[in-house]
Amino acid sequence: VYELEGEALLAGVSSYCDYPKEALDLPDCGSALLPDRETIQELAPQLVLASAPLSPEDTQWLAELGAQVLVVERADSVDGIGENYRMVSTALYGKEAGPKRAEEVFGQLEARYLTLQAAAQGVTQPVSGIYLRQAPLVMATGDTLEGELLEAIGVSNDAAAYSDWQ
Prior knowledge:
alpha/beta, two-stranded parallel ribbon, 6 strands, 41% helix, globular
């Protein structure tokens, strides 16, 4: 949302939102698994963005408040990241301006990715590596976005033969 310059539209964030640091100044609304109903009701949002499906009870409660719920699941490819940008931007700015804004922002990210990918084409001896991320701990196995990114920039992913590692 911040990358799409939609921060003025944010009334609150999840308990896990800590980037950019300005997000910490907004009210904590809990998480998709445990929303803070009192705070959410006080904020009276029109749209709730979630990274995972909410329970049917919470979804119904939000609908009764007049809020739409948009679940933006973790992308599993670079194209998936672009689709998430388009989906969120369209929800924030509408069907006309949203996709254009998403293409501007995602286009810049994709250009940086393609630059790294092109630079990796000249690497004759790839670096061997493994990518680990904290919370949740995820390894870049061959079926993950992280694995795709490592291969694209010329890193020989030692975990490429594995899948579904968490």
